[in-house]
Amino acid sequence: MEENQELLLNQIIDLHGKVVYTYTTHHKIQNRLERINKGVKISQIILTAVSTVGFLATVITNQYLLAWIGGITSALSLGFNLYMKDSNLDDRIKKHKDAADELWDVREAYSSLITDFCDLPLSDIRSRRDEIQCIWSEINKKYPGTDKKGYKAVSYTHLRAHETGRNLV
User: Fold this and answer.
1) What phi-psi label fits residue 120: left (phi over 0), alpha (psi between -120 and 50 degrees) or beta?
2) How far apart are CA 43 and CA 132, in angstroms?
3) Other C-beta atoms within 10 Å of 105: how many?
4) Core-most of 76, 102, 104, 162, by most CB within 10 Å?
């Protein structure tokens, strides 16, 4: 293989690895946001139940301690509700899922290009590489970016597996 071909192949393999890493990171962020969303919703239910029981128990037993417990849990419940009102967690979860779904196609396009590399002229390879990069760029503009926590969640093992040709994702 000529040096130019080898450099081009290495670039495409590197780009494929970056897409795999970004794809996996979007999934990790999606999973983290789903856990947060579930925790907040369960907390809302528990706090609402405790504040309701506290109010009803105060009416029945006329104990001030139960009124305080009901009032405090009601305030906490209000805080969670206000947080959820502006957090748009469901929307953020969907956007990261959609980004990962679209990146799957980019990942597969790079995989196919790597597979077909030896059978294509360099001009076709460069053209397909440029097309895939444009698609990837549009996806990155369309969806929220990844974050540090997401990248940390993606293990070094996944990146090394990709570099050695094994697919873990």
Assistant:
1) beta
2) 44
3) 14
4) 162
